[in-house]
Specification:
70 residues, globular
């Protein structure tokens, strides 16, 4: 398990999650306050990353977790 998870990196795609809090802005200004994040997407986050970093707006608005190849 990697304890050095960057809270600014989306645990789904690995991109910048655009978190207002991490940028020093009030939570009310964050995109996540205006966007519904699907429960299915949250459930697809690996256990070791869950609760350590927010998903990004692109993943949240895509509406579903990426499907594994195969």
């Amino acid at each position: 398990m990697n304890e050095n998870i960057d809270p600014a990196i989306c645990p789904v795609c690995g991109g910048d999650n655009g978190c207002a809090l991490l940028a020093g802005r009030p939570i009310e200004t964050c995109w996540c306050m205006r966007t519904r994040v699907p429960k299915e997407l949250l459930a697809a986050i690996p256990d070791e990353r869950r609760g350590k970093a927010c998903v990004c707006q692109a993943c949240a608005t895509r509406g579903a977790a990426p499907k594994p190849n195969g």
